[in-house]
Task: structure prediction
Amino acid sequence: MSKIGKTPIQIPPGVEFKIDEANQVAIKGPKGELTRKFDRSVSFELKDNKVNVSVKNPDNKMQRALWGLSRSLLNNMVIGSNQGYEKKLEINGVGYRAALQGKSLNFNLGFSHPVVFEVPEGIEAKVEKNVITISGIDKQLVGEIAAQIRHLKPPEPYKGKGIRYIDEVVRRKAGKVAKTTEGAK
Result:
């Protein structure tokens, strides 16, 4: 039995759950609509605004893995269409900055040229001082775009310059230390 898979998913008011014969699930909520095709071995049952996820053969290792995965993906779809997801990134460094121009982010990150990052459809970006907020209804896409932005200039361990997540802790290293002259006497 899958611990995660057998937990029912509560469908909040204002969110619609639809499934077709090709095992494609559509979730429509106040923030938007998400669709995803699931494996044929996974089945969904809606009862009293709760969705129960099950598999045809719980003893099969592959189907057990798909059971928990499918439940987690469906839960993320419900939360995303109802509340949405967001990731915040912070830019540290002298002269490092970002600006939003239309649907693209322009970065000055200490390179000889500005870096232009195109924000894809379904993602919204905001820039306030040195904090970039990436938001959307698809959890996987929000995380992927935030990771791509962080990859432009990852934080370095000596001064901490670069782009990092707000809650990320960067382990700092001590730099070179000059020798004292007291021991030479």
Summary: Residues 61-82 form the longest helix (22 residues). The chain is about 20% helix and 35% strand. The domain at 9-82 is CATH 3.90.930.12 (Outer Surface Protein A; domain 3). The CA atoms of residues 107 and 140 lie 23 Å apart.
